[in-house]
Specification:
With 113 residues, the protein is mostly beta strands. The protein contains no helices and eight strands.
Length: 113
């Protein structure tokens, strides 16, 4: 896990308020048995996450990831992108229950405090 400190200032009238945010990157393997609805990752270095994105680094299949945040936990949903040759359209479906995603390397970027 990598940690980068960020410091910002914001003016509120005559008072100056300092707020600190930390950018954390964490690389994990996907779950060995995916459950629809996503899997949760806890970022122990933060107590409150403002925003998070997840990126897959290696695989031959195209995936889309979506993230949702609750305090210091990130839920990651994995969608497989395919092609329906019958209708000539792209398909995006959440990965089925029980799918082994342990070969996937997922990097999470989150900003919080």
């Amino acid at each position: 896990m990598s940690e980068f400190g960020l410091l910002g200032r914001k003016e509120f009238g005559k008072r100056r308020r300092t707020f600190e945010r930390i950018l954390i990157t964490k690389t994990i393997n996907g779950p060995s048995s995916y459950k629809q609805g996503g899997f949760t990752v806890e970022i122990k270095n933060l107590f409150d996450i403002d925003n998070a994105i997840a990126v897959i680094q290696n695989d031959n299949t195209l995936y889309k990831l979506s993230t949702s945040v609750d305090k210091n936990k990130i839920t990651i949903k994995v969608y497989e992108i395919g092609y329906d040759s019958t209708n000539s359209k792209l398909t995006i479906n959440e990965v089925a229950d029980g799918t082994d995603l342990s070969s996937l390397s997922i990097t999470i970027f989150c900003l919080g405090r």
